[in-house]
Write a structure and sequence with these properties.
alpha/beta; single chain; about 500 residues; about 35% helix; 6-stranded mixed β-sheet; about 20% strand
């Protein structure tokens, strides 16, 4: 974070020192990171004491201060003071998350005010029902020629993670790449109030969080908040292939730039093919010219993510050859997202287990079949020309509300239609999926109650040559199963480690 006194932090957050009225934090200076884990605290840092479902950060304030933190944002000062903490080092706020947002808003405004037109600080924000993290990771690489940039690790895309990312910016930061997520209307309006973007990228409106939003049109409404949250001169980068996203163009306060496969897109992909490793090749065409691209990412569905990132990079001045080279060199950077590995025993694992919704599961299933060397069973030879057995390990897709049963059925039917050999349905919520997959000839279905049962099944059932996809919502725990499947195995190949 930029250097600030603790008194300035208190003023920016609307807080006050924990001591008696008139207590002055003096010249205490924060010049390190803002952290939410006391183990990450160090000299000059600021500790934010969140109250979570299982852990209360106030219990760890003393440890953070002992590790060198200059101060702490707290909402419950009494127990911290009772433990002997210096009142001058505690900034008391009503709500730590809201205070963190106010601090990030203040810091970003200061950084922007200090810049010139020749040396701006650009904020690029990405949202969408699928592809946010991958596109964010691509942007972090493609925008490197513009100077130092900040991007969050993984999916720091909510009211806590986004301010923490903003607060990493310094006087030298050229580009701030932010991922913005939503599971309710109003989420993105708040996040853009913290960090109004110069460039807003909307990837897709899909069937994620339907139970929370109450329908696909409300998903679109929520995603459009990123466009309306742009700075007045900002640019909206919209997916021309998604009708709901394209319809957001009139909401943009400034320029609109489109991407897609259709002829009308400003930045488009033509001649799309996929190699035997599941990596897409295409011709990237834009106002700057055309270039051949061979993605390092696995899965044809990443073409759209690559086009979105390329559109931003080209618009901000990165040369087309540099964009093409970066797309070819950037593989999965965040964990549990289309991470493809070959185990020593000959099993190929596609770990896409971080999260799931109907659209992303279908994309994962298509990649699974492709990486096995073929297509659907009805695409020619009896098994689609595949040389390897396909195993789809699918956990529940959460937060689908009243559409959950129907969406799981559809995904199960899709898995069978694509020619997946074995569907492993993990958890009670996947029963409709298993039933739909099992209704098709040629698809073996295994129903298991939980992740431990799935781990045991895979340990005894996977064999050399298999290609296995692991996919499920984060709360389903399939990501833990992926860690076990990819863990080092004993020399005898007995079992897996969690």
């Amino acid at each position: 974070m930029i250097t600030m006194t603790l008194a300035e932090v208190a003023a920016a957050t609307g807080g006050h020192p924990a001591g008696a009225q008139g207590t002055d934090p003096g010249d205490l200076v924060v010049d390190g990171d803002v952290v939410t884990d006391s183990r990450a605290a160090g000299p000059g840092s600021l500790f934010a004491a969140f109250v979570g479902e299982r852990v209360d950060g106030h219990d760890f304030v003393a440890a953070a201060l002992a590790a060198g933190a200059v101060g702490a944002l707290v909402s419950r000062p009494a127990p911290v003071l009772a433990a002997g903490a210096d009142a001058r080092r505690l900034v008391v706020v009503d709500d730590v998350a809201a205070a963190l947002g106010r601090l990030a808003r203040h810091v970003l405004a200061r950084l922007r005010a200090a810049r010139t037109a020749e040396r701006p600080l650009r904020v690029v924000a990405v949202t969408g029902s699928v592809g946010k993290t991958t596109t964010k990771d691509l942007l972090a690489e493609l925008l490197a020629p513009l100077g130092p940039r900040i991007a969050p690790p993984g999916s720091f895309n909510n009211e806590i993670g986004l301010p923490l990312t903003v607060l990493r910016a310094t006087d030298t930061t050229s580009t701030l790449v932010l991922e913005m997520g939503a599971d309710h209307i109003g989420n993105l309006a708040y996040l853009t109030s913290v960090a109004p973007p110069d460039v807003a990228v909307v990837l897709a409106v899909g069937r994620a969080h339907l139970g929370e939003f109450g329908g696909i049109e409300n998903v679109a409404r929520a995603k459009s908040e990123l466009v309306t949250g742009l700075v007045p001169t900002g640019t909206a980068v919209l997916n021309a292939d998604d009708a709901r996203v394209a319809a957001m163009a009139p909401l943009a306060p400034g320029r609109v730039l489109t991407f897609g496969r259709g002829a009308g897109a400003d930045v488009r992909a033509t001649d799309v093919t996929t190699d035997d490793a599941g990596r897409a090749r295409f011709t990237l065409t834009a106002a700057q010219g055309s270039a051949a691209v061979h993605l390092a990412l696995v899965g044809e569905h990443h073409v759209g993510n690559a086009l979105a990132a390329a559109a931003v990079a080209l618009d901000l001045g990165v040369p087309l050859p540099d964009v093409a080279r970066a797309l070819a060199a950037t593989s999965a950077a965040s964990p549990h997202r289309m991470d493809v590995r070959e185990r020593a025993d000959g099993v190929r694992v596609i770990d896409d287990s971080y999260n799931a919704n109907p659209d992303s599961v279908r994309a994962g299933l298509r990649a699974l079949v492709r990486l096995a060397g073929g297509g659907p069973r009805d695409g020619g030879s009896p098994d689609g020309g595949r040389s390897r057995r396909t195993v789809a390990v699918l956990g529940e897709m959460l937060e689908l509300g009243e559409d959950s049963v129907a969406e799981h059925r559809t995904v199960g039917a899709d898995a069978a239609a694509l020619g997946v050999d074995v569907v492993v349905a993990v958890g009670p919520g996947t029963r409709p999926l298993a039933a739909a997959a099992g209704a098709a000839a040629g698809c073996e279905v295994v129903e298991l109650d939980d992740v431990p049962a799935a781990e045991a099944y895979l340990a005894r059932s996977l064999r050399a040559g298999d290609v296995v996809l692991l996919k499920g919502s984060h709360g389903s725990g399939i990501w833990r199963l992926a860690d076990a499947v990819l863990a080092p195995r004993s020399p005898a190949g007995e079992g897996m480690r969690a």
